[in-house]
């Protein structure tokens, strides 16, 4: 009996304890639910506030002013104006301002005859008259390598003596002398309104008797690469456009001014030697690269480099060049004996050139316009070249970026 009473009491105590425990659990759960809800509410408000803060603090998209200007100019141009920009024309003997207005030329390339008989004042005025005739400001270019290839300094009174060859300058004071000479030359050109110098020569030649040797720095590939970097930097500081030439490297070959030249060297030779100065110039920010008319068999066995998509693809895609590509002079036998001027102009653009150096622009420009209209050349291709040309002109201060 006594054991039964104790057992019953124990059962009652356990039931009370269980009831109390259940009540406590319910209270705890209720409190937890309340606080979890409150936390979620607070977090929601905080997250919203944080998102708002992040939104308000997010940087606004910046628009490149140069790209904005390029876009504006291209959208406002007619097809005729855009095609005209693709031609760096040799200055005609007459009708110079009329040609600019009629063909919307991208620029003029000056030779010695264009400086003959000029004084500093008359030369400045003549070049300014060309710019006044242009809807889109022009490249005014010249070949001012120094030594045997110079134009303006051949005429007495226009410069402080003849521009010396790179080899002569280097012999006098090494790379420091090269930098100083380049700066002085750029300033001499700039004061007349010449804003584009088709230099420096990036070719590497071993044979002193070869065609191109006297126009090079006369050093090995590594030292030529250093020379190119020095010149490109000095020209950029002087705001005069530069052009690395003659891509992908002339070597010790003959003169393409007088005949078609075929270069049979293998690609490894170009990579180990000829291409190094060009890569150095590209890395230093060169504005443009001029492509030779030589047939480079290891890249394209059938077309001159200037008309070869393979050569241009190598320059763009393998070497990473983003700037303006231009042909060597279309009047050179290395090209004119290969193809007629009109078809050559079409193939020049199709190959990947942005600028064509031409005396036959009056025939070539209408031919290219017709090729765009009939779908032989896409207008997108034209636009891409015009964009690179305009960007270069803005970078050089030829066109105002504002």
What does this structure look like?
This protein has 402 residues and is α/β, with parallel strands linked by helices. It folds into 2 domains: 58 residues; 331 residues, TIM Barrel, CATH 3.20.20. 52% of the residues lie in helices and 8% in strands. Helix 6 links the parallel strand 3 and strand 4. The longest helix is centred in the first third of the chain and has 56 residues. The radius of gyration is 35 Å and the shape is globular. The N terminus is likely disordered.
Task: Map the helices and strands.
Elements (H helix, E strand, L loop, with lengths): L1 H56 L7 H12 L2 H6 L2 E4 L5 H8 L3 E4 L9 H14 L5 E4 L23 H25 L5 E2 L23 H17 L5 E5 L14 E2 L3 H17 L4 E4 L3 E2 L12 H10 L5 E4 L5 H4 L4 H11 L4 E3 L2 H13 L5 H17 L7
Helix pairs in contact: 2-13, 6-7, 7-8, 11-12
Short description:
The protein has 402 residues and is an alpha/beta fold. The protein has 2 domains: 1-58; 65-395, Glycoside hydrolase, family 3, N-terminal domain (TIM Barrel). It is built from 13 helices and 10 strands.
């Amino acid at each position: 009996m006594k054991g039964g009473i104790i057992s019953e009491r124990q059962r009652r105590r356990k039931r009370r304890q269980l009831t109390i425990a259940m009540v406590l659990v319910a209270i705890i759960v209720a409190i937890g639910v309340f606080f979890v809800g409150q936390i979620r509410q607070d977090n929601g408000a905080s997250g919203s506030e944080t998102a708002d803060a992040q939104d308000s603090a997010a940087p606004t998209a910046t628009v490149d002013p140069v790209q904005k200007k390029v876009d504006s100019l291209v959208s406002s141009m007619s097809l005729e104006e855009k095609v005209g920009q693709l031609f760096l024309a040799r200055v005609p003997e007459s009708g110079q301002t009329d040609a600019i207005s009629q063909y919307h030329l991208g620029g003029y390339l000056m030779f010695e005859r264009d400086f003959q008989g000029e004084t500093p004042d008359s030369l400045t005025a003549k070049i300014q008259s060309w710019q006044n005739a242009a809807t889109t400001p022009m490249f005014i270019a010249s070949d001012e390598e120094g030594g045997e290839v110079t134009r303006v300094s051949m005429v007495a009174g226009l410069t402080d003596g003849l521009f010396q060859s790179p080899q002569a300058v280097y012999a006098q004071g090494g790379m420091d002398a090269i930098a100083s000479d380049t700066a002085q030359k750029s300033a001499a050109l700039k004061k007349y309104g010449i804003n584009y110098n088709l230099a420096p020569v990036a070719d590497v030649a071993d044979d002193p008797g070869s065609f191109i040797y006297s126009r090079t720095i006369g050093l090995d590939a590594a030292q030529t690469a250093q020379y190119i970097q020095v010149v490109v930097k000095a020209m950029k500081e002087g705001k005069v456009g530069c052009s690395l030439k003659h891509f992908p490297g002339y070597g010790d070959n003959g003169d393409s001014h007088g005949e078609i030249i075929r270069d049979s060297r293998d690609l490894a030779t170009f990579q180990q030697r000829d291409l190094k100065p060009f890569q150095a110039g590209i890395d230093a920010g060169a504005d443009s690269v001029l492509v030779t008319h030589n047939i480079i068999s290891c890249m394209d066995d059938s077309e001159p480099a200037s008309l070869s998509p393979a050569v241009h693809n190598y320059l763009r895609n393998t070497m990473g060049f983003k700037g303006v590509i231009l042909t060597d002079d279309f009047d050179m036998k290395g090209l004119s004996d290969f193809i007629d001027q009109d078809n050559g102009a079409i193939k020049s653009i199709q190959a990947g050139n942005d600028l064509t150096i031409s005396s036959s622009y009056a025939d070539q420009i209408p031919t290219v316009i017709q090729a765009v209209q009939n779908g032989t050349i896409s207008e997108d291709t034209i636009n891409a070249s015009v964009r690179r040309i305009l960007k270069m002109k803005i970078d050089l201060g030829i066109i105002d970026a504002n």
